[in-house]
Amino acid sequence: MNIPDALKYTKDHEWIRVEGDEAYIGITDFAQQELGDIVYVEIETEGEELEPGEVFGTVEAVKTVSDLFMPVAGTVLEVNSELENAPELVNEEPYEQGWMIKIKLSDSTSPDELLSKEDYQEVIGQ
Fold first, then answer.
1. CATH match for 8-108 among 3.30.980.40, 3.40.50.1820, 2.170.120.12, 2.40.50.100
2. How much is the average pLDDT of 31-57?
3. Cα separation values, 27 from 9, 57, 82, Å
């Protein structure tokens, strides 16, 4: 299972990659495997300011629909438009082309409070 060192993680299986005062967010390799084949990603929060734990969208797999939670506070700048026509990118490349939203961080230090790779491995029992 792929769990990159450079990212931060949540217990809800989201990852965040910080680039300056902006960040990319998606779901982990573990999450996409648990969900199965992803058939639809719905995110209608572009332009909204959200707090940690708030739902920023949903992901629909063949078996289930799951909420997507904000790992940190921020404003949704962009939704990955590639996922509209190719939701399977979340299964194929969850950390690269399968990212879901790009945000402007409200507090650049808040990602420091999230889980490291090692902490996340404990959460998923690895």
1. 2.40.50.100
2. 96
3. 9, 12, 15
